[in-house]
Amino acid sequence: MRHLSETIALAIALAMLAACHKVDSYKGGLYGNFDALWTIVDEHYCFFDEKDVDWQQIREQYRSRIDPEGMETTEYFRLLGQMLDELKDGHVNLTSSFNTSYYRKWWSDYPQNFDLRLVREHYLDFDYSQSGVLSYKVLHDSIGYMLVSSMASGITNGALDMALLEFAKADCPALVIDVRDNGGGMLTTTEQLVTRFISRRTLAGYICHKTGPGHNDFSEPYAFHYDTAEGHVRWLRPVVILTNRSTFSAANNFVSIMRLLPNTRIVGDRTGGGSGMPFSSEIPCGWGVRMSACPIYDAEMQLAEGGVAPSEGCSVDLDPELALQGTDTMLEFALDLASDWRDWYIKQER
Amino acid sequence: MRQFLLSAIIALTAFAAHAQADTDSVPPYRPVAAAYTLGVGSAHVCDTYLTPLHYDGWSAALGYERLQAMRFNPQRWVMQLDGRLTLDRTQNPARNATINGIDLRIAWAMMWRTQLPAYPSLSLYAGGYAEAHAGALMLARNGNNPVQARAAATVGVTAMAVCRARIGRLPVTLRYQAALPLTGAFFSPDYGELYYEIYLGNHSGLVHAAWPGNYFKLDNTLTADLHLGNTALRLGYACGVFSSKTSGIVARDISHRFIIGVTTEFITIGRSRGIDPHARIISAIY
């Protein structure tokens, strides 16, 4: 009985210890939801320093704008969304059943330099192969062209095999991969693509995560590698990546990895960034919040949050007037660059 | 087929008439008390990796339990095998997000038992157990952190009180059991670590040493076995409390479930030994 009593006493003592696992409980109401949102971002967002944002000052600025007498739900949502916009991050959203806040200036302040219709009509002649987000064709001058419109869904290995095989059969000396207006999606799709263009295990970058709620609580960068796509068709000839400001997130990551591969050029406009993997949470009223939480660096430990610049001498924009006449000046530049490689190859063969 | 199964009642009837005084020299029969149960009730879930909010909803569990006196000292030692599959479905306070939970648990316990001379119908058990469980919480609307995996391997202490009584002419076995893990190891990602990073190969810091200060779990079970002939109807109540804190992630689950099930006791007799009329029958709880 004595042992039993001791066991029960121990159990009670330990139960009291467990009560120390306190979960911050947020109040509802206008101020409660505001504080919850501010705190969640404060504890998980990863780019305060890069964005040079004084989050404490933002709190005071926006909290004072809450009308304690009451606010319309849409007005309140807008206020919270505007506070998140101060982070200037396309990966930060507030989501409700009636609206989702977006910070759009990362692309809306830049020229729109991609016209899908122009490419499909004047370069693909409305005659191309397509599988999901992947469209491809061998263009005139034997340059392979591959349009990847999104990373949101995976690309089948079969489609990639067929596309690269078609380029190989046509003896294309170079390939243009168009990721303009590709807003990103899954990093596994990025990996799937990159592994087709590497000949050996390759350092793809570094990833960090928050280890605590402090703004500078980060883990040591973890180096991650991609293995070559064994058993599948690979492309080891030159590649031109065509980018614009709307190349974002996983597509931005794709460009930041490809940039460091040999025989690869980045052509077009600076990409949109978005190199922090988002983390999701929610506030008491049920609105979801998403924010950049895990920074991804390239193989040179450079952060691509501000975008990836074109290769030297490869910055080019779309000429709207020529576009009206059926010419995509960015694609033309990329095709010219690829043709130079073709000429170089021909010389090598001779 | 080398072994065959007899029901407990047939065995009891056959042997009782032939019980002899020198039974100590004969290995006793150790019937297995097996129970199949279904538990349904409420669940309260919180895991700050997924959300800082507390979710509430229902919980259901399928359980299998097997109790048997141990071979080396059947009068004093009892072993227990306990398996449970638990499914939870809970919602946030705004009722616009759902966490689905699944957990598979298996535990093996070894308990010493005694009887109080003043209360011959009451048996007390105490001992240790080893437990392994694995599961996950899934919050689909979270983009890159939609799942929190739960896994642990622990050892702990357990205690049980069994009281044999009657309701009118109906024999009833009342039982209360509590189990508390004391140490072991459990899985948890780091504070803001995404499973994608784990997928990329960063497996460091995922396994944590458990002690009641960072991993507290207390399972309480109260049952009444109503003996209706060869089998018994089990009615009961189970309460599970779980709280953990590591890497800044706090998890807290509380469940209440009402239990209904069937139990039966049976003896497995080797063909070579046959039915020994001198052997005693030592039950684990009945």
What does the model show?
The complex is a heterodimer of chains A (350) and B (286). By secondary structure, chain A is an alpha/beta fold. Chain A has a domain at 116-275 and 297-349: 2-enoyl-CoA Hydratase, Chain A, domain 1, CATH 3.90.226.10. Helix content of chain A is 36%, strand content 17%. Chain A is built from 12 helices and 11 strands. In chain A, the strands form 2 sheets. A 6-stranded mixed beta sheet of chain A has the order 2-3-4-5-8-9, with helices on both faces. In chain A, α9 packs parallel to α10. With 286 residues, chain B is mainly beta. Chain B has a single domain (3-91, 102-270), classed as Lipocalin (Beta Barrel), CATH 2.40.128.100. Helices cover 5% and strands 65% of the residues of chain B. Chain B has helices spanning 8-16, 195-200; strands spanning 3-7, 32-47, 55-69, 77-91, 98-116, 119-139, 147-167, 170-187, 207-210, 215-228, 231-246, 249-270. Chain B has a 10-stranded antiparallel beta barrel with strand order 2-3-4-5-6-7-8-10-11-12. Chain B is elongated and about 65 Å long. Chain B starts with a strand and ends in a 16-residue tail after the last strand.
Write the layout of secondary structure elements.
The complex is a heterodimer of chains A (350) and B (286).
Chain A: H1 2-18, H2 29-44, H3 48-51, H4 55-63, H5 73-85, E1 93-95, H6 105-108, H7 116-122, E2 129-131, E3 134-139, E4 143-148, H8 157-169, E5 175-178, H9 187-194, E6 202-207, E7 222-226, E8 239-243, H10 250-258, E9 264-268, E10 276-282, E11 288-297, H11 320-324, H12 329-349
Parallel strand pairs in A: 4-5, 5-8, 8-9
Antiparallel strand pairs in A: 1-11, 2-3, 3-4, 6-7, 6-11, 10-11
Helix pairs in contact in A: 9-10
Chain B: E1 3-7, H1 8-16, E2 32-47, E3 55-69, E4 77-91, E5 98-116, E6 119-139, E7 147-167, E8 170-187, H2 195-200, E9 207-210, E10 215-228, E11 231-246, E12 249-270
Antiparallel strand pairs in B: 1-12, 2-3, 2-12, 3-4, 4-5, 5-6, 6-7, 7-8, 8-9, 8-10, 10-11, 11-12
